[in-house]
Write a structure and sequence with these properties.
263 residues, alpha+beta, six-stranded antiparallel beta sheet, four-stranded antiparallel beta sheet, 11 helices, 22% strand
Length: 263
Amino acid sequence: MKRTILYIVMAFIVIVVVLVVAFAANWKGKNVLDGPTDSKFSNLVVNALNGAVSASIPEKFNGNYLDWKEVIPEAQILIDNFDDIKSEVNMLLGELDSIPEFDKIDAHQNNLANSDNKKWKTFFFKFYDEYNEENCKKCPKTASLLKQLPLDLAMFSIMEKGKVLIPHEGPWRGLLRLHLGVDIPSGAKITVDGKDYYWKEKELVLFDDTYTHSVTNPNGTRVVLFMDLKRKHIPSVFHKIASMAGKDYFNRVNKKLEENASQ
């Protein structure tokens, strides 16, 4: 009897391992151990989840750009209160030297952020954890709006004139990315899976950042309110597992945020 139970347990483990590797290998055909964290096991888990998520996404939510009004209609409050957001951005731009470059907060962004000699700065409200209250105090109206939305990440993304982001892909398909154009010079655009979108002030755009995307900003300082939100139409357990897999990474970045915000 004990031997039978042992065989069943071993068979179950083998099946789970095979499924994990199969889903991971199915995710864009990439190395199953490559990913956003320093742990190969965590990367294997995230890649397996991406494969599983891809298989479970309803067709209407499976594409490069999505209709934000269908996914997060409550984001309308950002448009309705755009003037307050723009006013706080103008205040931040007057203190631009004190805002850190993205790779100084998140070392994983080093190659992307430094692919040219132009700066990409970020003012974080939230990075996959609790809100950074020191930064929220500096932009209280924007922070109050963000806290009314189901967001995992929120920041002002500030790019100087001439900045280019080379083609790249996000690591986790359980998230969607939402941008609000706040201060947009002519010609500033993002290209997602070959389709261009030119940012516009007071306009929202929602996309899946696991598609290859790139950015060009030829004519002036560009500011967008940059947000991540969980996909609602996949099993919640996927989000919990992904959060556990990225916990150490999230903790390191939030520690950097706290150090910077307290200066």
